[in-house]
Q: What sequence folds into this?
């Protein structure tokens, strides 16, 4: 006899997760990957200053982290030219997105996103009983006009847009994002995911007053700062909205060691410049590998490249599976027509060499 009962929302959900981790895939295949290029991690590594700070902090791991993230919040505020009251630190963007949905969306209320956009956001919306309305991508990019139109039609509470975009690497100009705000209906909040902003052209970043009540922005230390395992992200938004997170967040959920590392990483501008150069070179290398194999690399403002395989999703899936058998972990978009692509993270030369070696073998086997 069953001894427990899920709550109605959880009971109605499928037993799925947004992503299957590479470690799980390695356990299934019985061997480690030789190239880990599927999770958009930054294999070039964090700032040495951040590593040193985290090593020192490890000895004090017995302490909880500062629940207010005071030093990091103030440093982030100074970095972005906003007030500390406009900044909230959390367990990566993923954790903050979950808190935002919990804070803003009642069961049955509408949230608008793009079909094929970052699935973890959808996971949180479903988990709190929201109703997802999806619009298609347009020319391999999220479509601000379609998102606004859907928000106007449904009275959406939240409208999600990543700029630059995951999984395609495309981007919109900052002025286009600014114009989008003027078209949103009253009461809709733009959820602007800027996880890859440090890799984007300067004109892709909108100029938005942090007190603008129409938008909340999200950044992370997982990508450009190469600290995905430390789980440090942050939100920038109106002080009243940011204060709302205190009502529901896990006040001791921040990783103390990661908190210290993020503060050190933020101050190491030279390392960030180095990372940008490494990523730019890796994007070029991935493009060369694609072209040498008769495939096309899409333009990217991120630390990954979407490669158009020139056929359909079934072929791209077969290519992805074949690469996994060769020990190369990559991923692919989940919705058509973007699922004609595979997505390859920028990584160190030896990992891209493994990809370059494996790709023609897999294509040949599928011919």
A:
């Amino acid at each position: 006899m069953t001894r427990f009962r899920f709550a109605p929302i959880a009971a109605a959900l499928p037993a799925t997760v947004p992503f299957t981790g590479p470690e799980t895939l390695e356990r299934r295949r019985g061997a480690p990957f030789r190239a880990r290029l599927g999770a958009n991690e930054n294999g070039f590594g964090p700032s040495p200053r951040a590593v040193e700070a985290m090593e020192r902090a490890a000895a004090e791991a017995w302490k909880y982290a500062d629940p207010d993230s005071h030093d990091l919040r103030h440093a982030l505020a100074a970095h972005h030219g906003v007030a500390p009251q406009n900044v909230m630190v959390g367990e990566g963007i993923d954790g903050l997105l979950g808190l935002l949905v919990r804070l803003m969306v009642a069961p049955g209320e509408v949230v608008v996103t793009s079909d094929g956009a970052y699935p973890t956001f959808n996971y949180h919306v479903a988990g709190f009983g929201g109703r997802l309305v999806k619009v298609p991508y347009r020319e391999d990019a999220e479509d601000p006009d379609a998102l606004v139109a859907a928000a106007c039609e449904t009275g959406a509470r939240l409208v999600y847009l990543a700029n630059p975009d995951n999984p395609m690497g495309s981007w919109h100009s900052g002025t286009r994002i600014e114009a989008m705000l003027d078209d949103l209906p009253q009461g809709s909040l733009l959820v602007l995911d800027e996880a890859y902003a440090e890799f984007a052209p300067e004109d892709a970043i909108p100029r938005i007053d942090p007190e603008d009540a129409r938008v909340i922005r999200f950044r992370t230390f997982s990508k450009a700062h190469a600290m995905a395992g430390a789980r440090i992200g942050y939100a920038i938004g109106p002080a009243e909205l940011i204060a709302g997170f205190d009502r529901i967040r896990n006040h001791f959920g921040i990783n103390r060691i990661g908190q210290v590392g993020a503060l050190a990483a933020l101050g190491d501008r030279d390392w960030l410049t180095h990372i940008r150069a490494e990523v730019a070179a890796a994007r070029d290398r991935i493009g060369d590998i694609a072209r040498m194999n008769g495939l096309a690399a899409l333009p990217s403002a991120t630390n990954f490249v979407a490669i158009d395989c020139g056929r359909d999703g079934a072929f791209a899936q077969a290519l992805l599976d074949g690469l996994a058998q060769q020990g190369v972990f990559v991923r692919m978009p989940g919705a058509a027509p973007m699922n004609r692509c595979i997505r390859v993270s920028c990584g160190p030369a030896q990992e891209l060499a493994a990809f370059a070696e494996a790709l023609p073998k897999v294509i040949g086997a599928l011919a």
Notes: The chain has a mean pLDDT of 97. The first strand starts at residue 35 and ends at 36.
